[in-house]
TrEMBL record:
<dbReference type="InterPro" id="IPR035979">
    <property type="entry name" value="RBD_domain_sf"/>
</dbReference>
<feature type="domain" description="RRM">
    <location>
        <begin position="40"/>
        <end position="118"/>
    </location>
</feature>
<keyword id="KW-0694">RNA-binding</keyword>
<dbReference type="GO" id="GO:0003723">
    <property type="term" value="F:RNA binding"/>
</dbReference>
<dbReference type="Pfam" id="PF00076">
    <property type="entry name" value="RRM_1"/>
</dbReference>
<dbReference type="InterPro" id="IPR000504">
    <property type="entry name" value="RRM_dom"/>
</dbReference>
<protein>
    <recommendedName>
        <fullName>RRM domain-containing protein</fullName>
    </recommendedName>
</protein>
<dbReference type="InterPro" id="IPR012677">
    <property type="entry name" value="Nucleotide-bd_a/b_plait_sf"/>
</dbReference>
Amino acid sequence: MAMRAVAAAPRGLRRLFSSFTFTPPSSAATTAPPPAEPSTNLFVSGLNKRTTSEGLRESFSKFGEVVYARVVTDRVSGYSKGFGFVRYATLEQAAEGIKGMDGKFLDGWVIFAEYARPRTPPA
């Protein structure tokens, strides 16, 4: 349809349309951040709003000794904000936790586990 409009357009507009080229944004601007450094602290996202810290600990304890597990909750409702943190005793256990739980179901939702990134200070 656009080509018909170009063909029917006056000569000057045809020249304008024919010289127009689309260049997608550079790949550098759309690349994902580099993966986080391996650590014992995991970031878990995609949690159901009814998931609790105890449920998170129980699910991840199959893969090693969980030192700390916390679901971040809304202050008003008390429901999960959809993410949380799990800390293991060793790096090997943390790697097993990621391998065992990333992309798996927890409370009916697919969750994602990855190494936690350190917080960046506010600007």
